[in-house]
Every structure is written in C-alpha cells, then in structure tokens.
Amino acid sequence: MATVTPKALEEFKKIYKEQYGKEFKSDVEALDSAQRLLNLFEVLLKCEHRERLRKQRLKDEPKGFHLEEDGSTYNCIICHKMISGKDGWWDLDGQKCLDCQRNIENGVVPRNICRDRDSWYASWQIQDKLKIHSSTVRKMVREGKLKARNLTTEGGTIYFQVFLLSENQDTIRQSREEKHNETVT
Q1: Where are the domains of the chain?
Q2: List of residues 6+ apart from 146 with CB closer than 8 A
Q3: Of 56, 58, 95, 127, which is the most exposed, with the fewest CB atoms less than 10 Å away?
Q4: pLDDT tens-digit readout, 31-40
C-alpha cells in the first residue's frame, strides 16, 4: 500500500483549497483524505490492469473464458448472482454467470442487455419503479400484457426475468400515466 508523502500532502491541500475554497481543519484530516483518495486510485488501477489482461486474453480466446481461480468473487451483470472462477464467464460484454451466458448464446435475451442496462427492467424494478405488485406482474405476464424473457437454469427452472422496454413500451407508459394520475388527484 502506497503512502502519501509530505510533498504530495501539501499539493493535495493546495488543490483542495483551490477547488473548494476552504482548508482542512488539521493535517491529520488532510492526510486521511489524501490517503483515502490514493487507496481509491490503487483499486481503480488494479481493476484497469485486470481488465487489460482479460482483453489481451480475448485475442487467444475470442468467445470468452471462465473467470480466474484467484479467490475473487464477482456479480453477474444481468442477474447479480455471486460468481467466481469456473462459475463465471467473461467476454467483451462483461462478467456473467454461466446460466446467463447460456441464455444469451441461445437467444433468450439479446447480447446488448449486458452493455445497455437502461434497455430493460428486472421483475423487482417493475415492482419498484412502476409500483406494480409482484403477483400483479405475474398475472400481467400470463395475460400477455407484459412480455417477460425467462432466463432458465440448465434444468429448465426460471431463475430471473428480463422485461425489455422495447417489447413493453405501451404497458410501461400506461402504468406510469396511471401512477402519475394517482399522485395528481
């Protein structure tokens, strides 16, 4: 772990005063803030280094590869399941659990949902953002009012649902209008 030098601390205090128009209460507070910033940049640098190594590895394995067996854990960028090592997959779209990767490969959901998080809702977001109860969401799916993309395990069990905004625009717009009218009246 790197430490803040006295020269760097003075420069940090000067920049802080220029940016925020005030000084630290003490050198201890300034040192603590500078050290925290330095630690943040060390983490960011480490992440960037790992990302570059993975992109380099894609030259040999263009379809992607299992995550490293280094004890690190990650979250799937789609379903947020905790993954590590052989349970995870990495390609240019990011880290995913093997089930989500298989569902993408089988065309259940489009690949772009990995990069465009604003193009879809998870079922909990339908409940949270649109204030539609979970049982009502399931009923709307059964009735065809909402179109869900069901992500399944290899055994066929549904473990996650994706609602593409492009497929559910009318229902989502209507629900937002109803919620808006309820707050206005």
Answers
A1: 6-57, 116-184
A2: 126, 137, 140, 163, 168, 171
A3: 56
A4: 999 999 999 9
